[in-house]
Amino acid sequence: MKYRHLFFDLDHTLWDFEENSRETLEDLYGEFRLSERGVPDFHSFHQTYVRHNELMWDRFRKGYVTREELRWKRISRTLLEFRIGDDALVRGLSDRYLEILPTKKHLFSDTRDLLDYLRTKDYPMHLITNGFERTQQLKLHHSGIDTYFTHMVTSEAAGSLKPRPEIFRYALEKAGCTAADALMVGDALEVDILGARNVGMDQAYFNPAVPPAGILPTYTLRTLSDLKEIL
Which tens digits make up the pLDDT trace of 36-50? Predict the structure, then answer.
């Protein structure tokens, strides 16, 4: 086998973050009666949150905000667009989002089939994720895929965020393999793919909505099942 160890991103790659987050936000919209607080409909709330969440994650990866600031500022800035300035509401929404989100179970349609296939091939599988440690553990548990992975390396444990080389090197050391023996599978070109390439790992890019541009991955996947043709 060309690769001895496989490393996956979790959100947007195996675990359907968009659908799970949308369901969570819909739960919160009803639970906190946001329609009575000046948010006209769920769609506008959802779209506004997604925009601010993406902006705050970008700032977090670049070191401009802390993990704790990310958690509440994405909610605060969302509500401010609806002229709601309520710190207690912001904290309540932030806490409940992180409680509910990891209990959601949506995976991409071929996630489990692929993991079963790779297990029959005896590939050791690991995760490298920028997500919060406890939250990611709960996502794996509730979606029923925790038993597939030998190690989960989070940015908290590694003290580094993708795409920085330290987190990839930490994961390789933890798995006991070299970059030449490893394949990284992820959805983010500048985070998963470039980060892995910069430490000498081959990469499989899975994001059908965003074709690779400017960065050429080792492999490009139309579906997760395409990995079977490589492995």
Answer: 999 999 999 999 999
